[in-house]
Amino acid sequence: EWSECSKTCGLGMQHRQVLCRQIYANHTLMVQSYHCQHLEKPETTTTCQMKICSEWQIRTDWQPCSVPCGVGQKTRDVKCISNLGDIVDDEECNMKMKPSDVENCDMGPCAKSWFLTQWSDKCSTECGEGVRTRSVVCMTNYISSLPLEGCGSQRPSENMSCNNGPCENKIQWFTGSWSQCSAECDSGVQQREVICVKKNG
Predict the structure, then answer these.
(1) Are the beta carbons of 64 and 75 closer than 8 angstroms?
(2) Helix (H, G, I), strand (E, B) or coil at 133
């Protein structure tokens, strides 16, 4: 009898034992093989194929890199396909022959630069010298923020001088505190003192 095929799919081998027998009437007797030398010896091995093996199939192109800069990964869809065209478990295919479905990708160094907010609308003083401010941060085009030293020493200024004119002869309203309510319940009124002040230096 032939042995089982050595492979469950694709080309394999089958083996069988071939013996020399001598027939006496209705009985057979196994004899030394040289007794059969004048006869053609049957094959002891043969090829076999249970079914066509499933094979790997690349189903999609590489997807874009997972990061816009620096080193990331890109992926593609690789499936094990049966001889009938169905998607089957990966174990049905030769895992050693599986094409890569994940690959590193280098999008180049992430650009670092200073990002600035707008200057504050108002000067810090109503007259004379003051400052206007803004926020300064070091950022890349992918990672949200870095330490301030990450963008180098040429850090833009966070302060800018401003001047609302001389404080001399400047006229300005000043208000006092509100008084207590004129009524303990219901509607009442509160008052405060308001004066116009002229500054002379």
Answers:
(1) no
(2) strand
What digits encode the pLDDT tens for the residues 103-148? Answer: 999 887 776 778 888 999 889 887 888 999 998 887 765 555 555 5
- Which pair of tokens denotes residue 115? 């990002």
Structure tokens at 192: 């405060």
Q: What would the pLDDT profile of 49-61 be if each residue is shown by its tens digit?
A: 777 778 899 999 9
C-beta contacts of 104-109 below 8 A and 24+ residues apart: 104/71, 104/72, 104/73, 104/74, 105/65, 105/66, 105/71, 105/72, 105/73, 105/74, 106/70, 106/71, 107/65, 107/67, 107/68, 107/69, 107/70, 107/71, 107/72, 108/69, 108/70, 109/69, 109/70
pTM: 0.40
Q: What's the token pair of residue 146?
A: 């870095």
